[in-house]
Amino acid sequence: MEIVEHLLDISGIGRNRMQLRWVSSAEGQLFADYITQFSEQTKELGPFDPEQFKLPLTAIEQTLSSPRIRWLIGMTRELTEIENVYHEKLEEKDYKRLLKQATEEEYHKAMIVEVLRKGPHSVHEMAKKIGLPIYTVSLRLNELEKHGQAELTGYDGSTPKFIGLAT
Amino acid sequence: MNKQFKPKILSFLCNWCAYAAADSAGVSRLQYPPATRVIRTMCSARVDPVYIVKGLESGFDSVFVGG
Amino acid sequence: MPDMKDEDIRIGVFICHCGSNIAGYLDMEELSEYAEKLPHVTLVQRNLYSCSEAGISEIKKGIMEHDLNRVIVASCTPRTHEPLFRSSCAEAGLNPFLFEMVNIRDQCSWVHMQEREDGTNKAKDQIRMGVAKAALLEPQEPIMSDVQIRALIIGGGISGMTAALSLANRGYEVVLVEKENKLGGMLNRVNKLGPTMTDASDLVDGKILEVTEHPHITLFTSAKVNAAQGFIGKYQIDIETESGIKKIDFGVILIATGASVYTPEGLYGYDGQRIITQLEMERLFKKGLDPGIKNIVMIQCVGSRNEDRPYCSRICCQTAVKNAILVKDQIPEAKVSILYRDMQMYGVENEEMFRDSRAKGIRYINYDPARPPEVESNHVRVYHALLGREMSLSADLVVLSTPLIAHEDATEISQILRVPIDENGFFLEGHVKLRPLDFATDGIFLCGSAHFPANIREAVAQGLGAASRASIPLSQGSVVVEPIISFLANEDACIACGLCVALCPYGALEIQKTAKGEKVHVIDVACKGCGCCAAACPQNALDINHFRDRQIFAAIEAGGAGAR
Amino acid sequence: MLDVGRHPNIELLAYSEVEKIEGQAADFRVTVRRKARYVEEDKCTGCGACAEKCPTDVPDAFNEGLGTRKAIYNYFAQGIPSTHTIDADYCRQLIGKKCGICEKTCQADAINFDQEDRIIQLDVGAIIVAAGYDVFDPSLIPEYRYKEISNVVTAIEFERLLSASGPTGGHLDRPSDRAVQAEIAELEKRAKKSQRALDKFEKKYEEGSGKFYENYKAGQYKDDEDYKKWADKYAGHLAIVETLNTLKRKAETFAVAKRLAFIQCVGSRDFRFYPFCSGYCCMHSIKEAIIAHEHEPETQSTIFGMDIRAVGKGFEEYKARGGNKSEISYMRGRVAEITEGSGNNPIVTYENTLERKVESQEFDMVILATACAPTKAVFELAKILGIELDKYNFVKTNPQSPVDTSVPGIFVCGCAGSPMDVPESVAQASSAAGRAAEMVFQSQPEKEKAVA
Questions:
Q1: A23 touches chain D (CB under 8 A)
Q2: What total number of domains does chain D contain?
Q3: Do D422 and C433 touch (CB under 8 A)?
């Protein structure tokens, strides 16, 4: 769930749109307090209009459904607690850092794929629409090209245009 | 931020823990805001991260997961 | 699972008043009008008490007269009445899993008493979500699996033997596998048993005789289990005996492998001659105590309640006090002192034995773990915590009370049977308080010191208890499982990565060869339907009956779309 | 509990007592008295509407008398069976006054005031005694002043105070504070009543009570009966309001109990009462202290005991965790006496054996870890069943067959046999069931013994 919170943060939706709480079956009062507190918090946040976050929401959904991220989340225990054959295992914080980094990459790639679905774009146009530095966009773009998810279609004057490819 | 706004919260409650806690809150008539819309799951592990995004996409203002 | 390609779905919604518990706080009129307009809803009915005889017959009548193929009851919590309504649907000829409950009492009317309008809106949303999910429900049949009427018991100590006899005396086929060449386990090396001071051999020999001669018990000594397949009711076990490997099928398995005594290498100058363990003391008694011994010092908590073994091994205090009393009985003028941190003489009998020992003149000296006693050539120096001064006790013999530790082959058995062990190596029970004799995975049971050090009374009680637990599937001959379990919804997507198998807390998944290559296979009977495999599967290949992804998505969309 | 209530093979006879048994192992005839509930089991759905409307408050035994319940009640919220019961000693209708509100409220018309006790016969193969235990009454120990000092409570009372479904909803209010709050509530009610009377006078004479009272004192309305009544009423009202305000000011200073003392072996390991060790009280105190700390992070607990016996699986680690993370300190020494200091704070005087000093310390609350005493009804039950009791009045068993009683065919499990904690009781329950099944199976005629 931490990864979902992280994605909500970097997409601008905000992590406090979601809450995970542990309650035992006898703690009715505690449950009522959590709900009261969370409704107040949601009230302060105001209504959430999905239209405003069309692109980030679709991108988050793609990221969370991508085999790479689901695989990394599923392997938490294997990587951090159970040693591999070389008796190595990842420190908790290293694993978390790695997972965060991979998630951000997938998130950016998903945004690019989504933007390209609407037609050819140059790197510059993509960067403006997504709100990412040009350098990051081009980095992710060639990863997409490597995986055959995006392709150069031609030039508009001197600027190269790319389109997404259905995988 | 208008007072009129009534938040709608999608809440996934695990049948054995959070859902049971919600029931016991009901038995003791503890009042809390009527913002939540509950989906009961056998365990909080059933809540796929994608559900949370789906909730926000479908018009909920926030998502609560009770394990 | 056959897919319901929009066959004519006819949903019946029964809204309950629950006297005034719901009707008093929600607008029932508005609710039923609202429900009538929902997709696929062909009947909406309100009754005073849905769970009373009258309410049930209303529902049954509704199903039959309106030929309903989905039923929703909007009333209280499914945790209490869902089984009741499911069986009523079944009696009316409707598959019990085409039924969904919506909680508009405990989680709605009772908790929003002063907010009638918002409460009613919430109830409308919850009913609409229920209808959306119900439309996609699929019929399920309860999963039956027959049980091989034979029990495997691993470990022939007092606990294992008690369990074997208890099951055999009820007419069940029992196979007892013992690693050593003789039954009896730890008790063979014990001299006398507190608090009644009976001879350990009397108790053990009696039980061994009963076991060896019992018609329903097949005994394999110097044998061990080296492979296990299957699940509750259908276990295939390979037992390596002196006369080769025997492959036998079992319905249930009991682990009674006991524990072994920790040898305190390097502690207090342990040498097995003058500085010995309580177990070696038992052998001294059996050989006959040397009457020349005048001073004995016992030290408690040797190698336990520290960082490597943080647990208190429960029975070493009782053993020390018992042996101290036996010494005083044989050599009245001997001086026996016990250096202790806490005298864990819990319960009625132990406390009585503890009092008798003091009456017989056994001295108890409290030591501070930060300043442990020092054993020298013929005496022991200790800082008496209560008197606040250093003491020196002459000691012809020093007896160290060491804890019981997990049996060395416990890890191996836990891997063979895929059952967990805790951080100290003892087997991890299903629930520390409520299921102490079961494992999380059904069909395998646990008793005696394999679970945690236990004295005779507890080992016998746990042996009987585990046998009784194991007899439940044996007596029913079959195991019925609610069909809310995981299943391979999209076989092609599964790449047999094994992620789910590692995650499953109940060992209910395995990788199997199929026509389409290696795929995950769900052991229906063992699966508890928690859904963590479906939520984690990178390929979204697994899904959970009655809580399918698309059913939950439908409920989410229905919930969100409602009026603010 | 739910599974027991719904299991097809279990017939649950709640609110019933065994009166007589005949026959021997595998063939017992048992006479059971089903006490009258004045509620029809098959009609009552346990919805609780009646309890809401019932006007009579009764001290709630489940909450150790700390809270109240109604005359028609369910023993506790999720109790099984959910059928409610009418308490014949308190119900107005049953003690001759007029009421019947529950009968009118109940839409399932399950109330039946003329219900009688019913005697039924059961033919059973085996009997299992699981009669449990009673909590030792610490008022038998004069030096602990359990009844005199309100902030000295038993472990079970503390459990209820800390429980989310208890009288204070888990909020650790001190009993002395709750007594003051109860008094405040009572005074508020009386103040309202006297105010209503004053309003009547004021309306009648169109004059404020305050002004009238000045004139009255100034001798204006001498020896007029009505005015005199008005003045006395007003004086009484002033007295009530004054005490009410002083109590309210005092109530501002009330806070949750933070300094807790747990005294172990109250009644156990004590030659005057029970020389044995009850086994579960050390762990219970540690658990209570940890939960209290979870509720209120500033809570500090001291557990006074000779040995702190944490002997079960994972118990020693739990005790260590309590010590490190939940501000619990273990004091090795027996408590000599409890006296009351200022502000209802109990003062504990004890011998600190490690320092070899006698010390005393003030606490907000003292919790007595009471012994596991045999149930009062065990003598009668033993007579009816003919089973032997041991010298502490627990059911006599021997270590080699821990669940068999002296009478073949009758078994025992749990604290009725000897004090034990939950995991052991659960394990013993299965063993008693196993032994019972074994004995019943053995007694079947030869041909039925062949199992498929």
A1: no
A2: 4
A3: yes
Q: Look at residue C183 and give its three-state secondary structure.
A: coil
| B27: closest CA of chain A, how far (Å) | 9
A54-95 tens-digit pLDDT? 888 999 999 998 888 888 888 888 788 777 778 788 888 888
Report whether C114 contacts C532 (CB < 8 A). no
pLDDT of residue D301: 94
Count H helices, E strands: chain D?
11, 19
| Predicted TM-score of the model (pTM) | 0.78
HSE-CB for D441 with a 13 A CA cutoff: 19
Chain B touched by C386 (CB under 8 Å): no
Q: Contacts of residue A56 in chain B, CB cutoff 8 Å?
A: none
User: Does residue A2 have a pLDDT over 90?
Assistant: no
B28 to D78: CB separation less than 8 angstroms, yes or no: no
Residue C349 burial class via C-beta count within 10 angstroms: exposed 0-12, middle 13-18, buried 19 and up: buried
**Same domain for D362 and D400?**
no
Pair (D363, D269) in one structural domain: yes
Q: Is the ipTM of this complex over 0.90?
A: no
Q: Are strands D357-362 and D346-352 parallel, antiparallel or unpaired?
A: antiparallel
* Chain A (86-145) residues lying within 8 Å, Cβ to Cβ, of chain C: none
CATH number at residue D330: 3.50.50.60
Q: Nearest CB to B56: which of A20, A21, A48?
A: A48
Beta-bridged to residue D268, according to DSSP, are D274
Question: Does residue D219 carry a pLDDT above 80?
Answer: no
pLDDT at D42: 82
Reply yes or no on whether the pLDDT at C314 is more than 80.
Answer: yes
Residues in contact with B10: Cβ distance below 8 Å, sequence separation at least 6, in sequence order:
B36, B37, B39, B55, B58, B60, B62, B63, B64, C556, C559, C560
Domains and CATH numbers, chain C: 6-140 (3.40.50), 150-260+405-479 (3.50.50.60), 263-402 (3.50.50.60), 482-545 (3.30.70.20)
- Would you call A140 exposed, middle or buried from its count of C-beta atoms within 10 A (0-12, 13-18, 19+)? buried
- Residues C110 and C146 sit within 8 Å (Cβ to Cβ): no
3-state secondary structure of D181: helix
Does D79 fall in a domain? yes
The span from the CA of D161 to the CA of C333, in Å, is 54
